[in-house]
Amino acid sequence: MRPAVRSFSLGELVDLLGGELHGDRQRLVHQVAPLDSAGPEHIAFLGRDAYRSALEQSRAGAIIVHANLPGSGRALIVSPNPYAYFVRVAGLLNPEPPVLGSVHPSAAVDPAAFVSASAEVGPFVTIGKGARIGERVRLGPGCSIGDFAEVGDDSCLHGNVTIYAHCIIGLRASINAGAVVGSDGFGGAFDQGRWLKMPHIGRVVVGDDVEIGANTTIDRGAMADTVLSDGVKLDNQIQVAHNVQIGAHTTIAGCAGIAGSARIGAYCVIGGGAIVLGHLSLADRVTVSAGTVVTRSLDRPGRYSGIYPTSEHRVWLKSAVGVRKLGEGEGQGRGRSEKRADKAE
Q1: What CATH number does residue 114 fall under?
Q2: What is the mean pLDDT of the chain?
Q3: Residues belonging to the active site
């Protein structure tokens, strides 16, 4: 674990973040740590009562909890959401280094680009014609910003991120190494025995406070835009195809794939390795379990799961229909069994 940038007293944390302190206001914490490995210099959190035994064995100097635990014998900060409080404490102890307004000598910046004086442009960055780089933006080594692309204020692009021409990144974006935003989508017309490439003339438009994981790819729209709304969080190695729209504050875990023109609602959660087929719609607050293949639109909130062995398509369809009928008849079968049991008694 890397050392924290600074230490805080428990009193300072409560003054900044709220919460109810049970313990010494002057006690210092120097870093966050997991409950089971924390030492006296650390602050940890207890998310659920199921881990109460771990709390009793922990050596943490302070613990964030959801309710006062009398007799714990240690400093506690009570919060209705211990994990969220813990995340904020971690941010205070480990802030990002300040952005230094500078352009590295090896960077290639087109004369027609606009780069804010407060932006930090790293080595071997390229910035195309008409591009705009906002205030306090950090562009890591090897980033490529295409012609007329925009990167909003306070955004951080780590090494080797590529933003294609005309794409727009909102405020406070965090884009991890190797991500590609605005590559051509996959598709074309089949004619006379060969594929004709479809020119993709849309953009990718990314809202505010969006996070994009390492090596994730987001394709530009074919004619309309691919859109990621405010607060979307994408994990590593995700594929978002052309014309996809993702609603606000949706989270998608690693290696998921969203096919072309799918529409994902707000506050959805899509598990790792899940697939959403093209042109489908997911309502707001839909959760898709890891590894699930979504083959139809989901118009109601809820959790959806489905894993089924691969077979020849016609055989698979027949099997799937049979399994579904078994599920639909389960309640009727149970009722008949209960009636027979009643008669036997």
Answers
A1: 2.160.10.10
A2: 90
A3: 242
